[in-house]
Amino acid sequence: MARIQITFFIIITSSVLLHTRSADVYSALLPNTVTALTGSCVQIPCTFDVPDFDEKLQNTKQIYGIWMMNSPHFNKENSLLVFNSSENITQGFSHIEMIGNLQKRNCTTVFYNIMMNHSDTYYFRLQMEPDVFRATFNTNPDDSSDSRKTVKINVMDSPHPPELSITPHVSKHVEGTSVSLRCSAEAPCPKKPPTLSWSYIPSSANITTQIQEKPDKTQSVISTITFNASYTDHKKNISCTVTYPTHISKDTTVENTITLQVLFPPKKTSVSVEPSASVSVGTNVTLTCNTKGSHSKNISYTWYRRGQETPLAWNKNITLIVTHNNTGWYFCTAQNKFGNQMSEEIQLMIKEHNGSSKSVIYGCTGGLLTLLVLSAVFVYCVRTRASSQTNIRGRDEVSVQTEDKNKDMEIYSNNAVEMTIKTEVTEDETDEIHYGEIDFSELHTDNVTRKDPETEYAEIQRSKRKRQLNSDQKQEDLYAQVKTK
């Protein structure tokens, strides 16, 4: 019976102890450490859990939070109360703001204008009045839970450089593949977050920036730049610069840099000639295939001549003794394991002894031929114009002869009028018949050979003038007779 009583006492005692311990279990979730920048602000994310909190809240008339520095002991000499939300009391800081809602178990707080002497450990205390719940969320050595109940603020004059990483996580990237750079910077003051910028942005880049919450509820700003790798990006330094705004001095900047390594096929392949592409017969000429590509020691070269399918050589340089048989157009190809490229053609010519190349001679010959053609065209144009002017003069002479004929007709009309006048005046007189003189000596038969055309024309003109004189004389005589009467 005694053993039963002892066992019952032990069970009751254990139950009381378990109930008491479960009633005392409360916790706060805080980051272990936050880093603050001098002259800026710092936000401490904070949540808590209290057993039967909703039930306690119903019996609470006032709930407020308290932040203490250096010691978890409330109202102790070595404890500094820096903030009390019940009366908005702030000590040692210019301003502290509790932005969390305590009734929703959120105790997030912002400390403004942080100074170097603010580096310390801070404790959160919750009080629910009247005398419903009062406790400081401090580290309990006997508590085996992972709940974090304190936070340490580290104040720095200069922030940490941003974290810069590249994806894929390889040292070198093949041209054309997608590459992402990620820059992450702490944002201890989310109300005034830092700004991120890139020093070199590839042409195909896409940039995104966002604020991200970390597992401990602190925040950071993340900027990601994504692009397709190009040979123009090879050995380019890309820097991510972070600028933090402060109140005590100019903005603070930090940066981190990464160098791109891009693998690419041959680029800018070309042929160079030494001493010249136009030389005398018998001259030694060296052709060099120049290119830019990854793993330059492993680039292979192939030489070709226009019109020949068979390669000439497989070296970077080839040397020729110039003859009339090996002039022409040459080109090369360069190849590595990432691709190949062909150069432009270059012409190898023979220079003449007078110092000019065949190309120059051909050019001069072509110029002379062109000059001759232009001269022939000019002569043709001049002759055509002269012929046109001759035709114009011929037309003018015909016009003049026509005018002379018209004048003769006018004179004939006037003579006819005068003859009519004379007939009217002498109508009572005896008509006299005048016979023209006929020179029978000038008559020819068809059997007689005709005279020279020029001589005949001259005789016709003299006969015409003679008849004209006779007609004029008769007109004057007639006019004189009419006038006398």
Task: Looking at this protein, list some descriptive labels.
485 residues; alpha+beta; seven-stranded mixed beta sheet; 29 strands; 27% helix; 33% strand
Written description of the protein model:
The protein is α+β, with helices and mostly antiparallel strands. Helices cover 27% and strands 33% of the residues. It has four helices and 29 strands. The chain has helices at 2-24, 53-58, 358-425, 453-484, and strands at 27-29, 33-37, 42-44, 47-49, 62-69, 80-84, 89-90, 96-98, 109-111, 120-129, 133-137, 150-156, 163-167, 173-174, 178-186, 195-198, 206-213, 219-228, 237-244, 252-259, 262-263, 267-274, 278-279, 284-292, 300-305, 317-321, 328-336, 339-342, 346-350. The strands form eight sheets. Strands 2, 5, 6, 7, 10, 11 and 12 form a seven-stranded mixed beta sheet that branches. Strands 23, 25, 27, 28 and 29 form a five-stranded mixed beta sheet that branches. It has a four-stranded antiparallel beta sheet with strand order 13-15-18-17, with no helix packed on it. Helix 3 (358-425) packs parallel to helix 4. The longest helix is centred in the last third of the chain and has 68 residues, at 358-425. The termini are far apart.
